[in-house]
């Protein structure tokens, strides 16, 4: 199946590029900066995986995803199972930037029921938020209260890092390369505040792309290769994105 598709000229070029990337990223003759998986534009890998997912679904009637808990956040829920794609010969190589190859991304699906699309989930951001959450919850366990430095949104608070005794934690955005702040709810769960990213991409997309009831995170997903990990829904309130717990 994979070889039949590879006969199309467009795919041959992409596949050859993919194979060359694999050689470069493992070759000992190249310096480390040339072997980094993030030197390759994400779209090149995503196109390959997207085709494999589409073919897998067309032939089997199901999606090649791993099992997840019911309460897994929507943008983290549908992680692609590369093993299933390889076992059925829909994909020969796992992308070098994938977690399974030591990279920084999970490959996930959005819109799984209607039009499954392959996106990337940044594990660096996920781990930064998760590590901070552990510190926050340890603090709550010892002190019985939140290390809060003011209210961010209804039911959400900025984190007092001085109270925690750690360096301020921020996440470099995969959407804009800006540094994003972390916030927490009253139980100590930590989230990334994507409001600055939403403002930037919403303006780029035309500014009026969503109504007041729409989840503004869709703007991030539709205009990038990525999903907003460790995020909450955002609504438009007085013209600005507002996180909703």
Description:
This protein is α+β, with helices and mostly antiparallel strands. The protein is built from nine helices and nine strands. The strands form three sheets. Strands 3, 4, 5, 6 and 7 form a five-stranded antiparallel beta sheet that branches. Strands 1-2 form a two-stranded antiparallel sheet. A two-stranded antiparallel sheet has the order 8-9. Strand 3 and strand 4 form a beta hairpin. It is globular and about 55 Å long. 31% of the residues are buried. The N terminus is likely disordered.
Using only CA atoms, what is the Rg? 20 Å
The H-and-E topology, N to C, reads as HHHHHEEHEEHEEEHHEE
Main sheet record: 5 strands, antiparallel
Question: Mean pLDDT, nearest integer?
Answer: 86
The number of helices is 9
Q: Would you spell out the secondary-structure blueprint of this structure?
A:
Blueprint: H1 2-5, H2 9-26, H3 32-35, H4 42-60, H5 82-87, E1 105-110, E2 117-122, H6 123-143, E3 148-153, E4 156-159, H7 161-164, E5 170-172, E6 179-185, E7 190-192, H8 195-205, H9 217-222, E8 234-237, E9 240-243
Antiparallel strand pairs: 1-2, 3-4, 4-6, 5-6, 6-7, 8-9
């Amino acid at each position: 199946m994979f070889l039949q598709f590879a006969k199309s000229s467009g795919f041959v070029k992409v596949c050859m590029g993919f194979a060359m990337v694999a050689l470069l990223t493992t070759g000992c003759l190249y310096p480390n900066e040339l072997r980094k998986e993030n030197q390759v534009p994400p779209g090149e890998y995503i196109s390959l995986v997207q085709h494999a997912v589409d073919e897998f679904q067309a032939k089997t009637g199901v999606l090649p995803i791993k099992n997840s808990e019911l309460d897994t956040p929507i943008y983290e829920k549908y992680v692609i199972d590369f093993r299933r794609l390889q076992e059925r010969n829909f994909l020969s190589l796992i992308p070098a930037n994938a977690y399974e190859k030591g990279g920084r991304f999970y490959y996930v699906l959005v819109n799984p029921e209607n039009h499954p699309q392959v996106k990337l989930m940044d594990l660096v951001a996920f781990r930064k938020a998760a590590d901070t959450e552990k510190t926050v919850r340890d603090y709550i366990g010892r002190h019985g209260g939140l290390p809060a430095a003011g209210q961010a949104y209804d039911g959400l608070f900025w984190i007092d890092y001085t109270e925690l005794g750690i360096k301020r934690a921020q996440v470099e955005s995969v959407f804009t390369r800006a540094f994003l702040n972390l916030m927490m709810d009253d139980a100590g769960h930590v989230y990334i505040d994507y409001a600055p990213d939403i403002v930037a991409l919403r303006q780029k997309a035309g500014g009026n792309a969503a109504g007041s009831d729409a989840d503004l995170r869709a703007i991030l997903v539709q205009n990038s290769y990525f999903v907003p990990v460790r995020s909450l829904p955002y609504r438009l309130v007085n013209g600005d994105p507002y996180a909703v717990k």
